[in-house]
Amino acid sequence: xxxxxxxxxxxxxxxxxxxxxxxxxxxxxxxxxxxxxxxxxxxxxxxxxxxxxxxxxxxxxxxxxxxxxxxxxxxxxxxxxxxxxxxxxxxxxxxxxxxxxxxxxxx
Length: 107
Prior knowledge:
Blueprint: H1 3-15, E1 23-25, H2 34-38, H3 40-44, H4 49-52, E2 65-67, H5 73-82, E3 86-87, H6 90-95
């Protein structure tokens, strides 16, 4: 979807008074092979959701990301720098085979 369409939808929702918007965010084996996941920074590059959100002005503390399984090191740093929040539901994420829950990661 073009960035203008994405941004306009978020702006409209905010105009309507919505104070909390949650984005679903997962990088897992469905998006590539396990080998790719080991080096996600290399193969995702500019296609990382977290990498794209700042250009849309959507990576900040008022839009939490749900799940965030398989987050690359660079995405984790960017999330932290932006003050973004993650909501993790480990039991659900394991049942859905989304990968290791982010809440168990040291970073």
